[in-house]
């Protein structure tokens, strides 16, 4: 079917005048997320002081002359932004700068997600797929879902795909293979430094054979220490070097997350996604916890029955505990 025959879908990106959106909008608009035959109407939400900057982004999008992009709706009004959307990239939030703690971010950002949850509840399609990128992403996703009771909780997800991609890149470099040869890494838990990057089920394609990461790397100590720490601290390392938080890689991961959700995972592939916990793997029920998931027909499913090496168990408990604490702090901020 050519793109002229499909009906356009409405997609909102919040924080549309910011740095992640500047990379993300182009990736979406050229068809890399929803398919090369899926026309789009892009809704761009930012706050009133950013409307002039946003106008510049709109000009640039027009100047890209992209065939799938039927319309662009820039706005500072959540009612307009969330009207009838099928997909929502919730990027708009303050990023952590050098010297800031995660706590500073939580109190500044969670209120945004209450307002946007309410707007999604009233104005979005009931099957809208929501990806929260703005930090603290897992906890913001819980807040958003709580204030959008008419939309199923499984439609609210948080981004750990960037950590997943970082883990793949580290393993590929160590095994000296292209990154496309590495799959099935797992990020458990929170998108924070307590996350648990786990390569024990990862697959590496070497000289035409698929082997485990342990077999490909032959350095268990590296997999259990440097690998984990590098992935856990990568966001902070990027801030330290760029003096700004990751943007190009974050946009790519957001696109990867939503593409997997809409178009499905490959056979035998799983990806990491922050989703509402059903208690799998001993995680606290009801928090948005990153799990390995497979996706088909637009529905994610937590991969079950993976054997978890004892080495990871305390770390899984700690990241779950952090998510429970963050949820309590977020509710205290909102209800204050
Ligand atoms: N989950 C992840 O892996 C991941 C990775 C990188 C960054 N992030 C987070 O993404 C968020 C955005 O990062 P950035 O670098 O694009 O920041 P940025 O400051 O460049 O852009 C954020 C934009 O959001 C807008 N904004 C603020 N409040 C808003 C609201 N209520 N409604 C709509 N827009 C609003 C701002 O005006 C700004 O234009 C940050 O919270 C950052 O920490 C998450
Ligand atoms: O604020 C941070 O420590 C990380 C910012 C961002 O979420 C990332 O992972 O690059």
Description:
The protein has 336 residues and is α/β, with parallel strands linked by helices. It folds into two domains: 9-158, NAD(P)-binding Rossmann-like Domain (Rossmann fold), CATH 3.40.50; 161-325, L-2-Hydroxyisocaproate Dehydrogenase, Chain A, domain 2, CATH 3.90.110. The chain has twelve helices and 14 strands. It has helices at residues 19-29, 51-63, 78-82, 102-123, 137-146, 161-175, 213-217, 220-224, 226-232, 234-242, 248-263, 313-335; strands at 9-14, 40-45, 69-75, 87-90, 129-132, 156-158, 182-183, 186-188, 196-198, 203-206, 209-212, 271-276, 288-296, 299-302. Strands 3-2-1-4-5-6 form a six-stranded parallel beta sheet. A three-stranded antiparallel beta sheet has the order 7-10-11. A hairpin with a 2-residue loop joins strand 10 and strand 11 (209-212). Helix 1 runs parallel beside helix 11, helix 4 packs parallel to helix 5 and helix 4 (102-123) packs across helix 12. It is globular and about 55 Å long. The termini are far apart. The mean pLDDT is 96. Bound molecules: nicotinamide-adenine-dinucleotide (NAD) and (2S)-2-hydroxypentanedioic acid.
Supply database-style keywords:
single chain, 336 residues, Rossmann fold, L-2-Hydroxyisocaproate Dehydrogenase, Chain A, domain 2, three-stranded antiparallel beta sheet, 14 strands, globular, binds (2S)-2-hydroxypentanedioic acid, Malate dehydrogenase, EC 1.1.1.37, Malate_DH_type2, L-malate dehydrogenase (NAD+) activity
Total number of strands? 14
Q: Which strands sit side by side, in order, in the main sheet?
A: 3-2-1-4-5-6
User: Ligands bound here?
Assistant: nicotinamide-adenine-dinucleotide, (2S)-2-hydroxypentanedioic acid
Tertiary shape: globular
The Rg value, from CA coordinates, equals 19 Å
CATH superfamily of the largest domain: Lactate dehydrogenase/glycoside hydrolase, family 4, C-terminal
**What is the mean predicted local confidence, pLDDT?**
96
**Number of alpha- plus pi-helical segments:** 12
Order of helices and strands: EHEHEHEHEHEHEEEEEHHHHHEEEH
Query: Mind describing the biggest β-sheet?
Result: 6 strands, parallel
Structural class of the helices, strands and pairings? alpha/beta
**CATH C-level label of the largest domain:** Alpha Beta
Low-pLDDT runs of 5+ residues are none
Beta-strand portion reads 15-25%
Total domains, how many? 2
CATH hierarchy: architecture of the largest domain:
Alpha-Beta Complex
Distance between the termini: 52 Å
């Amino acid at each position: 079917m050519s793109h002229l025959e499909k009906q356009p879908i409405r997609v909102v990106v919040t924080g549309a005048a910011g740095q992640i959106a500047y990379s993300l909008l182009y990736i979406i608009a050229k068809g890399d997320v929803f398919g090369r035959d899926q026309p789009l109407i892009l809704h761009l939400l930012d706050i009133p002081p950013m409307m002039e900057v946003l106008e510049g982004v709109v000009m640039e999008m027009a100047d890209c002359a992209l065939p799938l992009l039927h319309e662009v709706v820039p706005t500072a009004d959540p009612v307009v932004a969330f009207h009838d959307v099928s997909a929502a990239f919730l990027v708009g939030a303050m990023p952590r700068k050098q010297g800031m703690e995660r706590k500073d971010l939580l109190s500044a950002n969670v209120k945004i997600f209450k307002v946007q949850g309410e707007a999604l509840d009233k104005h979005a399609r009931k099957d809208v797929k929501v990806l929260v990128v703005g930090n603290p992403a897992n906890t913001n996703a819980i807040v958003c879902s709580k204030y959008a009771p008419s939309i199923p909780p499984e439609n609210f997800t948080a981004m750990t795909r960037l950590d997943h991609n970082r883990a793949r890149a580290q393993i590929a470099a160590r095994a000296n293979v292209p990154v496309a040869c590495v799959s099935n890494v797992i990020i458990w838990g929170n998108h924070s430094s307590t996350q648990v990057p786990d390569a024990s089920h990862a697959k590496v394609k070497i000289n035409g054979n698929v082997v485990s990461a342990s077999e490909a790397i032959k350095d268990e100590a590296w997999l259990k220490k440097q690998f984990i720490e590098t992935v856990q601290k990568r966001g902070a390392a990027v801030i330290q070097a760029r003096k700004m938080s990751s943007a190009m890689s974050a946009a790519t991961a957001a696109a990867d997350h939503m593409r997997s959700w809409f178009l499905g995972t490959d056979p035998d592939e799983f990806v990491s996604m922050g989703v509402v916990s059903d208690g799998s793997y001993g995680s606290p029920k009801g928090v948005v916890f990153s799990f390995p998931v497979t996706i088909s027909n637009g529905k994610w499913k937590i991969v079950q029955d993976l054997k978890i090496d004892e080495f990871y168990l305390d770390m899984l408990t700690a990241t779950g505990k952090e998510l429970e604490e963050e949820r309590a702090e977020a509710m205290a901020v909102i209800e204050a």
